[in-house]
Amino acid sequence: MSYQVIARKWRPKTFEDVVGQDHVVKTMRNAIEQNRLAQAYLLCGPRGTGKTTLARIFAKALNCEKGPTTVPCCQCNNCKEIDAGINLDVIEIDGASNNKVEDVHQKILETINFAPVSGKFKIYYIDEVHMLTNQAFNALLKTIEEPPAHARFIFATTEADKVLGTIVSRCQRFDLRRIAIPEIFGQLRKISDAEGITIDDDAIYALARGADGGMRDAESALDQIISYTGTNITEKDVLGVFGLVSREAIEGIAEAVITSDIPRIINLISSLDNSGKDLRRLTAELIAHFRNILIFIQMGGYDSSLNLTDAQIETLKKQAAITNTAAVLSITENLIDLDSKLRLSLSPRILLETALIRSAKSASVVDLEKILKKLTNMKLELGGGDAATTASPVRQDITKASPIIAPTPKAPIIERPIEHKATDSLSKNIPSQYTQPNAATSPAPAINNVPDAFPENEGSQMDNLESNIALSKRVAKNPLVLEALSIFDGTIKGVKN
Fold this sequence. Notes:
The protein is of the alpha/beta class and 497 residues long. Helices cover 52% and strands 6% of the residues. It has helices spanning 6-9, 22-33, 51-63, 77-84, 101-109, 134-145, 165-168, 181-195, 201-210, 215-229, 235-242, 247-258, 262-274, 279-298, 310-321, 325-342, 348-363, 368-383, 387-401, 424-428, 460-471, 479-488; strands spanning 40-44, 90-94, 122-127, 151-157, 172-175, 198-199, 232-233. It starts with 5 loop residues before the first helix and ends in a 9-residue tail after the last helix.
């Protein structure tokens, strides 16, 4: 017997063998058990996720000599012929090459009224159904809505939005999802052990990651790497053959961006580009990694939906501890914007380096709100008292030292003297137009209608304050702000030095 590729040899034969599509399997099995069979089904999903496989299993379940049954025997003539694609009652049609009205009439409309040959149902399976012309779709409308009792339709497509709406409305639609990496990992491990292949976990994980949610792609990649290396496979072999980037490289670039280590970023990108790695795939991997960091931060730790190994979880924990939500969001936005530009770019390396350097710069930005909160906590620890009384001198000093916040009154209204202690450094920075000529002997005037720079309620007013301060270049010269920035080694968003 000639060699059979792994993807065909290990194609699921029963519902129990299907990986990653439990919602579809359960619905189909219940429909058979409850005798609630629809006249037409539409299977939508990315390539290699099991559309054709599910269609054949469903056909076997209906036409098995022991059926209709949820567990086809796979031993009777009907089951064997359906698996081989030669059963007369299961007509498989390629929508890409049989997309005209004439094809629909010849292969479906002229034969549908004939009774099944050996099974209970005549089943029409049209793959890539979105390739049919509108005329061909319209020719099927009436037949799909009211087919003969012995006829059933199964459609499959990778582009559901191109299927005529009148067709979709006559079908039960199933959306197949991309198969998760752990599920692909488990299936490849099962296949490798059964085939006598020695392959380490990192190599399997690399294959699963490169499959992009498609089981067939993963199995084909495994077949290819076996042909290249033999029965002993390492991660290095997988990365070299398929141009994938190692998990360590992804994590290293992410760490360099978070810590603003620009020389390391440039060196890593140079090394990967010189070794022929796909920079678009690298960008997608980085987006996924920073998405995991974001979820880790927001969930307060590891979430099971991430589906990561122990080593990856430990790395996420370390990187999440040295960054924050705002920085990760900014980095992710830069990378998503980069991904759209790489499609048409003739210099992807330059774009990638620029985006990562920009991301590294944004990662060092410190929110002013965080600075002020830390300053308040420091004052509480050093001077005691509650937050309200401690924050008041800060608000008062910044009100005096930041005249840009308060508009200049035509005639200052003196309500009453304000008793306060201003430091010499802050007093020297008060512009002369805001002081009385005899300021040395007279109490400082209170300026009416001056907005409270730091209101007690830190809700929407604090957001407005941050926005106003960020838009003002002059605030960057405020002595108190400068001192805060020096303490926390940060910059103000929207303010250039």
